[in-house]
Amino acid sequence: MKVIIYGLDRSRKVIERNLRGNCEIVGYCDDFYRLGVYSDKNLIKLDEIKDTDFDYIIISSLSENRVEEINNKLIKAGIEKNKILKFFSVYKEQCTFLLDLPLKRSHRILSNMGNDIEGIILGISHGAIDINPKYLDKKFCNLAMPMQDLYYNLKQLKTLVYEYPEKAKNIKYAIIDMYTYTYFNYDISMTNNAVLYYENSGYREDEKHNFDNNKNFTGTIQEELDKRQEMYEKNQKISLQDKDKMYQLEIFNKLFDRNTMDVTFDYKDINIYKDYCVDFPLRKDREKIISDEEIEELKRTETPSSLQTFQFSKTLAENRTVFREILKLLNEINENIKIYLVLIPEYNERELYLQKQEKFWKESFYRTLEIFRENFKFTVLDFKDYKELYANRDYYYDSGHLNYKGSVEFTELLNNYIDY
């Protein structure tokens, strides 16, 4: 099969080395390179492509916007859309699962950090996507994770201390995202999001906590993960009813054999492997602003959660023990460590609802913290009443979390309190 590669940036190498043996590159096309020959192949102008003998043209750009721009140019130039392959759109969707990555997210992050870490961030999704370490003056590593409870925060901390001691020895600061006033009442292993958390965090049977008592699931963690994979594959097949996706995958399979691809090598070669090991989401993934529809839905559907409605006595008792162990371990790292317990506001309607709903929990939360003050020093930074943040729609990705702009604004605010 005869192919043309559109784009001469570094990413084209992935295409060139992975093409099937029966494929021949008959030429290149590029918007910026002007010489007539490239790599001993003809450089074909956009308006000459239609008159060239080829089977498919492969767009090599990594930028989604750039890919669509080139795709539209080609169609406008008279190229049939079923002859155009948006290579990386398909490659990422179909092959990323083949990446050789550490199973646990904590290992993915810590193995890519230097030994000059000065602080760590622990917590739930608010810490994970609202606190951007890039905008803190000190060098922080963000180990917070969506849905992460206190028990697994302790697990993350132990991973750092016992498996990466060289990275832990210079820690002087710890930020703990305390979610909201119900955090001591929360055990992810007992919720219907438990398996999703295990999928994202990498924890398995040997660290399942109270999962055996979770009435939402009947199988082991691995069995439930297998069910999720089956559902994902089923949904993938359904999505392929989209004709555009179908012909893209058909072209990809004609030109490439995913079983022979070294996805890890490819991702490292084009410098995107690190994107899967970062401790904060990529900017492009956090640019959205909460929509009118989401706000209206929020107003219509707000109801108390089980965390707000019920006191889970065993969970409360266990989490107090776990929290004490977190504080103790932090002080073992550095007896002069500065610990900041942070509460981050959610979006306007949601935050105002929580303030009314959680009055009891707020009192209970602060009474609990007073118990720990007898043995540990820490600073509570409660921003739940910070209207300049929570009332600004431009800062929110959804009802509960900041977008990239909001994370920068909040982190710069938080930075003023660190080492103050």
Task: Outline the structure in words.
The model has no long low-confidence stretch (mean pLDDT 93). Strands 3-4-2-1-5-6 form a 6-stranded mixed β-sheet, sandwiched between helices. It has a 5-stranded parallel β-sheet with strand order 8-7-9-10-11. Helices cover 43% and strands 11% of the residues. With 420 residues, it is an alpha/beta fold. It has helices at residues 12-18, 64-76, 87-95, 105-110, 125-130, 150-163, 165-168, 194-201, 221-239, 243-255, 263-269, 292-301, 306-309, 313-333, 348-357, 359-372, 387-390, 404-415; strands spanning 2-6, 24-29, 37-38, 41-43, 56-59, 84-86, 119-122, 140-142, 173-177, 338-343, 379-382. Helix 1 links the parallel strand 1 and strand 2. It starts with a strand and ends in a 5-residue tail after the last helix. The longest helix has 21 residues, at 313-333. It folds into 2 domains: 2-96 and 231-276, Rossmann fold (3-Layer(aba) Sandwich); 105-224 and 279-415, SGNH hydrolase (Rossmann fold, 3-Layer(aba) Sandwich), CATH 3.40.50. Helix 6 runs parallel beside helix 14.
